[in-house]
Amino acid sequence: MDLEITGRTALVLGGGGGLGGAIARELAAEGATVVVAGRSAGPLDTTVAEITAAGGRAHALVWDLGELDVVEARIGWIEETVGGVDILVGNTGGPPPGAVTAADASVWEMQFRSMVLSVITITNRVLPGMRERGWGRVITSTSSGVVAPIPGLGLSNALRSTLLGWSKTPAGEVAADGITANVVVPGRIATDRVAFLGRGQGRARGHDRRGGHRREPRDDPRRPLRRSTRVRPDRHFPRRGARRLHHRVGRPRRRRLRPGDLNYPTLREPR
User: Which domain of life is it from (predicted)?
Assistant: First the structure.
């Protein structure tokens, strides 16, 4: 597939691994020069090495998205080193799981800065350059929790829904300048975060670390329903007694006709 982005510059937030790393590799394979940004240098260097080994062009940029005062410096470095940002992928890390009613106000503020306000601030910084060039793509990654809230991820459900409402608004404001703004809603993809959340849910449901099962409450709404299997007497049981079993498992058993019934056979006298 040719996305016609050869020579474009892409900034992928959270590009050190998981979904962000996969997006960065695909954009580089399409011919874009990718800048992967993230908090830790190790995962960023790994992604850059994989892109370079495949013949692509990539740069690593250590960036804590919660630090909004460095946005101007980071975007300025990209513009001087690579060029103006043509493609912005807003992929941020997820907040910790837990009961939303137990989250402190400071946690809400910190996660709002790193997950929501960072994406909005960076987008506002790169939009003028996109307008000057008459081309731009703003892609914001959220979660399936914006469609159906996920139990235990109240912070993520609320904050990612904020990004969904925000992205829809500027999409109409910048469309005339050749810029599109879209939201992707990924489901359960095999990433490190999904594996971490799965282990936490497993412990909450009674699974130990070795995969054993300690308890299985019947009234747990998160427990998947098991599809029942229809029993066929001719396959699962011997022929002897199959007729009687078939009446018990399948269709109801017929009652024998008795004298006095409407359809009871009677002898008629010849005319």
Answer: Bacteria
Among the listed residues 88, 75, 119, 76, the one whose alpha carbon sits nearest the alpha carbon of residue 9: 88
- The Cα 260–Cα 7 span in angstroms is 92
- Give the strand pairing for 136-141 and 179-184: parallel
Cβ(68)–Cβ(113) below 8 Å: yes
Torsion (CA) 260, 262, 263, 269 in degrees, nearest 10: 70
Please give the backbone phi and psi of residue 89, each rounded to the nearest 5 degrees, phi first. Answer: -110, 105
Element (H or E) spanning 141, and its range? Answer: strand 136-141
Asked if residue 83 lies in contact with residue 9, where contact means CB atoms within 8 angstroms, the answer is yes
**CA nearest to 60, candidates 13, 94, 103, 27:** 13
Instruction: Decide: 92 and 119 in contact? Cβ < 8 Å.
Output: yes
* Of 164, 199, 167, 18, the residue nearest 94 (C-alpha): 18
Whole-number pLDDT of residue 97: 78
Element (H, E) at 261: none
Q: Report the distance separating Cα 122 and Cα 159, nearest Å.
A: 17
Quote the pTM value: 0.70
pLDDT tens per residue, range 83-132: 999 999 999 877 777 788 888 999 999 999 999 999 999 999 999 999 99
